[in-house]
Queue: 4 jobs
Job 1
Amino acid sequence: MFFHDLIFSVTFRSVIRKKSTEEFSCIPYMIGLLNSLLFTWYGLPVVSNKWENFPVVTVNGVGVVLEFSYVVIYLLYCSPKTKVKVAVISTFVVAVFCITAAVSVFALHETRRRKLLVGSIGLCVSVALYGSPLVAMKKVIKTKSVEFMPLPLSLCAFSASVLWLGYGILIRDVFVAGSSVVGTPLSILQLVIYFKYRKERVVDEAEIEDLEKGGLELEKVVELELELELGKEEKIVTNCEQQ
């Protein structure tokens, strides 16, 4: 999760610089926020046995702060119509987390049952998080451009899924390792698609129009320079004749 957050920070530096979210979707950041919230809760002694999942708490705790920051930045630079969409999804994310936390504390009184509830919901969200790049992959295949699926993000997605898979197997926790069973092949697919389309680029009508305008402007400049040169030559000839 932390690898995703670091790469998302690169994306949001671009958003802040351009003062626009462009075609970036808010869905991955919302799913990432919910995932971090759930697994931070999962790793706390309220759900887990004492501090057996301390690394899960620390990594996802940082993830909560970063993902929340990304959502705020996204809200600042997205269109008014998109702000409504982000607000609705944010309400849903908060509601899911609050209901999960409340049920695990007040309705379940055994650590095993609490881990089963929170871990199962967290696992589903994690699978959705790893599946969210499918939207980007579809766009890459359609446009034949990798602009919205940068290589560092795909590499870190692969690294993160492999590391969490290994850690989950070592501590024998199916909820920690489970999502990476899906995440690892998806991240490999991202890399395959990236290297397939990285050198291809589609020039749209707007770009063609700009190029045509640029060509016309260049022609005008060349014509003007030629006229000036001809004018200078005529003056020189006239002066010579007068002498």
Job 2
Amino acid sequence: MSNLFVELKTPITGSFQQPTGLFINNEFVEGIDKQTFEVINPTTEEVICSVHEATEKDVDIAVAAARKAFEGSWRQVTPQQRSIYLIKLAELCEKNIDLLAAVESLDNGKSISLARGDVNSVIGCIRYYGGWADKVEGKTIDIAPDMFHYTRSEPLGVCGQIIPWNFPLLMLAWKIGPALATGNTIVLKTAEQTPLSGLIFATLVKEAGFPPGVLNIISGLGRVAGAAISSHMGVDKVAFTGSTPVGRTIMKAAAASNLKKVTLELGGKSPNIVFNDADIEQAISWVNFGIYYNHGQTCCAGSRIYVQDGIYDKFLEAFKKRAAENKVGDPFHHETFQGPQVSKIQYDRIMDYIKIGKEEGATCEIGGERHGDKGYFIQPTIFSNVTNDMKIMQEEIFGPVAAIAKFTHEEEVIALGNDTNYGLAAAVHTKDLNTAIRVSNALRAGTVWVNCYNLLHHSLPFGGYSESGMGRELGEAALANYTQNKSVAIRLSGPLF
């Protein structure tokens, strides 16, 4: 068997062929330096396999392939044909949903039910942008009787895209959908912790018939391949989802190179606000989902929970009971809700924050310890008696750790909710429509949910204020991240003046 594929097995799929090479020009290839790195199963702490590592030299090759496709074969493809390619790709994802979900669970540790949900969202996202491909329009603008003016929305060119490990396939879809629909070509780097599902996806790209070089998917380290993409003079735009500190580094590299366009979807520390008149049972269900979904490894997680004093005690007791019911364990077990954290580094980071919370004087109501003795599992954790100046209330933990505090007045909780450097998401739980609208409008966040949480859709724009990033993913708004406007002015025949 070629060293570009390895045989793996999951309880869902049985044996399957896992690509391990770099996907460049519609082929899996070795890295120039023939370097590889290990992929660790977070459930067992064992090596799944090794994949080829992209270096700066490989990024050069992938960018050259993308540039050749952009200036050649892809430029000749009509918007209608781009639509057909994308819809075909969505259909292939649908056909292979079990394989894609199983590899996602194996590699990332998320429960198989959540992984299937992710793949369904991938299918919807790619199909949605397939529908947009032939609907990107310009305008005619009437300025003078002897002139004809029109605008065009043109693709940017070669787009570098760097995705995170918490939603490997979903973030891939969010990135490639609008970029391909608008006629760009792509070099996409997966997260080094979770490269496997992206490589499976690459096989479907080729099967869908995309011309070589249009979508290149490489595995590599952020500090090497990610840095090379960010600073590459042949990349016209970089899109990144991940931490705010890394986002700053990417923005500096983009500015210092060719001043490439940048969109960043970064961290969050989102407030989840529960008023006295909320339906407590429903609010607890959504608050639980808001923080513990995807093991707490969600940029928009509702990690800061503010509960009005009239129901605080009742809410806290019920929330503790609900959180303790979350099934933590093997992601391939049908009852599992929370799998392991993605890596030993992430596990240690979260446990350090739990230790800090205890040292700062917060009360650990439940959890705060390792779950089991194998794998990177952490018990669902709730801290009470948390003040807004504590690290666990201000810094993004990115794990199954909730911080809960009491408030009295609406104005007070708005100030508390906005007391953060982030601004990605927020939620309001109340039966009063006036309160819902008033507070939603006052919160500085890119998304506000009312009486729900974590309900994202490919039709709705998603992104943050302040240090949560710039630009918007999803919806029609994402198309603007991948197009540039050109004005054309045609002077009709006649006298010069």
Job 3
Amino acid sequence: MATISSNDSNLDAIFEQKRLLRSKVRKQLKAMNPTERSQQDAAIQNNVLESLWFKSSERLCAYISCSALREVDTSKILSDILCNLEKEGGGLVRKKLYVPRVEDKNSYMRMLNISTTEDLIANSMSILEPSPVDCDGNQREDVMDSNSPVDLILLPGLAFDRSGRRLGRSGGYYDMFLKRYQELSMERKWKLPLLVALAYDLQILDDGAIPITPHDIPVDAIVSPNGVIPITTAAKERM
């Protein structure tokens, strides 16, 4: 399916196609065998943790998985980031981690720095998010206010196709955040981070299967239980 312009009269048809595809994938996720899901969660996370592109990352954004939404589990990845110290320049430093906090229903989401899982609180939908201030009452650093770029962003989604198209949950939170971060990176002449999606086998669709609009931002690569699928030139060079 071709990309459409914002004034295309077929825009409503694209949204309807997305709605139907979301419904189909949600049903498939709901029917997924719990044991198989657990096995795929472990395989996907191991594929991330064992990769050189993850090990070499210094600053990254990652989502906190929600089992109710049937997202690929990220608990092992987050634990690795928060618990393991890495040697760098003769000293011991942690990877710097930013995780999402939804601020309103107008697709506004921030990525805030955390250093422990104790920094997380459940929101009104029981999804874990960073508290806006730390235990000392200081505002958490927003990735948009950082003086250094992130090199990796791990993304959730309902489905992805092999050309990198991403089908979200219709809220637009990630597309809006990614657009803002890409604009900041260009303004500051930063190298763009790798956008890496985590997906179960059933969430990976054929090339071009997901309809898109100009506001949809594609991913650079997909991590499946069977390995990494690099899509863009940036991913092929770094992965």
Job 4
Amino acid sequence: MILQGSWTIKEVVRKFYPLFRDINHWPTICSTVERLRPTTKRIQVKWERPPVGRLKVNTDESYLVDSDNTGIGGIMRDHHGELIMAFAVSVQCNNNNSAEALAVKWCYHQGYTDFILELDSMVIVDMVTNHDSNNRKLKHIIDKILKIKNATNFEVKHCYRECNQVADSFAKLASTTDQNQVVYSYFDLHRTSKGPFQLDKWQMPCIRSKFDKANFYVR
């Protein structure tokens, strides 16, 4: 068992550190492993404007476990990045994914049927795109979204959370203040939303940093 464990560790280290010698001295192996550090990936991301003639809706949720408060927020913009409508709504919900479904339902009830919907929840996006409602915990959520999708002409896309900051600010506003609001002008945006909104409109990129768990280097 010890030999098997030692061999496995050395193979893992050798995969990412080709110069690692075939050392059988256990303290040396441990010392090498302890110096492994995950590499960091950094990429530029930005909110992308929709095609000419189409609208884009970004939605997000904010679920506070301690208080059990949930807020959904969203913003609709045109191909110039101009504000069409933004909303912050406090809802009754017991998990994050359910809030995403409620955001889609809210947009539909406002009469918007032809738009691009962006979420930073890859799980929901994949399940809606693949029409996959086999997950028992999320089945009722996905079924609701698919029902609306079949009755409208909206497209679902994934975006990084760095590109979803305006919707996130509205969701947090609803969950923390228990206030509902709908705005149609930039000047009526909450102060926490104006900065991210302008950065999106100017197409300013954000730096996304993420640890690459699959690759390591040895210092």
